[in-house]
What we know:
Elements: E1 2-8, H1 10-27, E2 33-39, H2 43-52, E3 58-68, E4 77-82, E5 92-100, H3 104-112, E6 120-128, E7 141-145, E8 151-152, E9 168-173
Parallel strand pairs: 2-3, 2-5, 5-6, 6-7
Antiparallel strand pairs: 1-9, 3-4, 8-9
Residues 38, 41, 98 line the site of magnesium ion.
Amino acid sequence: MERLKLVISQEEIAKRIKELARDISKDYQGRRVVFIGILKGAFIFLADLVRAVHLEQLEIDFVRLASYGYADATSGEVKITKDVEISLKDKDVLIVEDIIDTGITLDYYLKVLPRYEPRSVKVCCLIDKPERREVEISIDYRGFYVPKGFLVGYGLDFAEKYRHLPAIYEIERVS
Ligand code: 5GP
Ligand code: MG
């Protein structure tokens, strides 16, 4: 069994997304921007973020990256199981990710992206969780800093459960 402890409320998430959206809108004014959501975890964050930004030439796409290993950790092997479908050539790309933990998944994808010839690539993550970081990632827009713990809700799952919860919780295992 698991017990859930509230870490970030719905109100805090909404407030922070407004602030991120204001910065992103300012930085990308007049640009051709593609937001790339990393499935599945980032789907709710991306949906809220795109509705809060003011960018006329915004396009949206998704990738699905599978990391193999333990249920809640990253082994270091990453595969693209669904790639982007629109052209990134000469566009400004903003990667929208749920959590950066070890950094391995995003590091892999950032190395693949230049082949699509984007004009620029930046990273926006909802949660920066640095405890287990193995690869340094430069985060351009950071929602929250959570030092440790396994989080669920607002897109994040535990064995596919809890993605639908509107706030973010830490899982506490109880036996
Ligand atoms: P990384 O490659 O940075 O270690 O991990 C990337 C992915 O692992 C995240 O995008 C997320 O899908 C998953 N992940 C890392 N930490 C957590 C967590 O606390 N909760 C959940 N649900 N997923 C996590
Ligand atoms: Mg993810």
